[in-house]
Amino acid sequence: MADWDPIAEVKNHPDIHIPIFGNGDIDSPEKALAYKEKYGVDGIMIGRAAIGYPWIFNEIKHYLKTGEKLPVPTIADRVEVSKKHLAFSVEWKGERKGLFEMRRHYTNYFKGVPDFKPFRTKLVEIERYDEVLEVLNQIEDKFSGIFRKE
Ligand SMILES: Cc1cc2nc3c(=O)[nH]c(=O)nc-3n(C[C@H](O)[C@H](O)[C@H](O)COP(=O)(O)O)c2cc1C
Known about the structure:
- By secondary structure, the protein is mainly alpha-helical.
- It folds into 2 domains: 5-66, no CATH class; 75-142, Non-ribosomal Peptide Synthetase Peptidyl Carrier Protein, Chain A (Orthogonal Bundle).
- The protein has 8 helices and 2 strands.
- The protein has helices at 5-12, 29-39, 56-66, 75-93, 95-102, 106-109, 117-125, 129-142, and strands at 21-23, 43-45.
- The chain has a two-stranded parallel sheet.
- Helix 2 (29-39) links the parallel strand 1 and strand 2 (43-45).
- Helix 4 packs antiparallel against helix 8.
- The longest helix is centred in the middle third of the chain and has 19 residues, at 75-93.
- It is elongated.
């Protein structure tokens, strides 16, 4: 558990006049608002909660501005962003290493999808880029009803 008390101490110090940002354990819009109010920080940074869930930034910004929760990303959103992440990974590190390093992220991108395990197994075993893309397309088709926006 991150200890935010020293952050508040710095923020409330009479001689400190720079913006103070806090971070540690923020993983939802509600928590971001609660910590912002409790500790009086000027900004919040997000680490682990953004891994495989980059939507967290917009979700928090929207909630702080409007008090409303955005709908969660659809399966199509998740497939689109994981394909983009994969493409950057391959572009940066080459096909083999790029595919390999992406493997750890699928669980987070598809968290909450029921019976996802067989697909995850395929994603982490396949060694060709075009085949991974094919499995991602299958995931989009099979789970299209999940996370549907109202
Ligand atoms: C994959 C990963 C890499 C990190 N690398 C660094 C780093 O290089 N330097 C650093 O000061 N903190 C690093 N951190 C710590 C984060 O900046 C952050 O303080 C910590 O994860 C707590 O915030 P969180 O609960 O939002 O993840 C890293 C965290 C993660 C998960």
